[in-house]
Amino acid sequence: MATTSDIRKGLCIRYNHDIYKIIEFLHVKPGKGPAFVRTKLRSVTSGKVLDNTFSAGHKIEDVRVETRSYQFLYAEGDTYHFMNTDDYNQITLQKGSLDTPDLLKEGEVVTILFNTEDSMPLSVDMPAHVVLEVTHTEPGVKGNTATNATKPATVETGATINVPLFINEGDKIKIDTEKSAYMERYKG
């Protein structure tokens, strides 16, 4: 058993007869009244996101997880195929268990959380950032850079990201997977 002081991003807990992964949390200590923890939870079975508030010191049942590295092979509709990088066993997961499936490129190595009790995959953790090539974007207009202007760009996985005006087709960009946001032009 854990308490609210053990809450952290990525922690898997058993709540309302389901397993949830904490995707956001905030410890709140108001001037008046008791402290509490505001959380955003995602169900690992249905992908449904819910907001919940735990009072300080509340007991929560954490789920013991094990992490393993898997390589993304390909997607077939809403089914995603992964291969274990150690023993080459393959597993399939549904699109709902991935945080940002539109940023997943074939060959990308991800971390998959498994429940230690029944070895069922719980969720997929993407790397902190990915490098993708811009496949389509409108050309930037010269002299239109007085403000922090952005334009939409489609990357090789099909995702649309807002990028600065100086980014062109064929450029590789680094993308923050947590926020699905442009970080920098990749010079690799």
TrEMBL record:
Pfam families: EFP, EFP_N, Elong-fact-P_C. InterPro entries: Elong-fact-P_C (IPR015365), NA-bd_OB-fold (IPR012340), Rib_uL2_dom2 (IPR014722), Transl_elong_fac_P/YeiP (IPR020599), Transl_elong_KOW-like (IPR013185), Transl_elong_P/YeiP_cen (IPR001059), Transl_elong_P/YeiP_CS (IPR013852), Transl_elongation_fac_P (IPR011768). The keyword Protein biosynthesis applies. Residues 130-185 form the Elongation factor P C-terminal domain. One of its GO terms (biological process) is peptide biosynthetic process. GO terms for molecular function: translation elongation factor activity. It is found in: Cytoplasm. Keywords: Cytoplasm, Elongation factor, Protein biosynthesis. GO terms for cellular component: cytosol. The keyword Metal-binding does not apply. Signal peptide: none annotated. Residues 67-122 form the Translation elongation factor P/YeiP central domain. Involved in peptide bond synthesis. Stimulates efficient translation and peptide-bond synthesis on native or reconstituted 70S ribosomes in vitro. Probably functions indirectly by altering the affinity of the ribosome for aminoacyl-tRNA, thus increasing their reactivity as acceptors for peptidyl transferase. HAMAP family: EF_P (MF_00141). This is Elongation factor P. It comes from Galbibacter orientalis DSM 19592. The gene is efp.
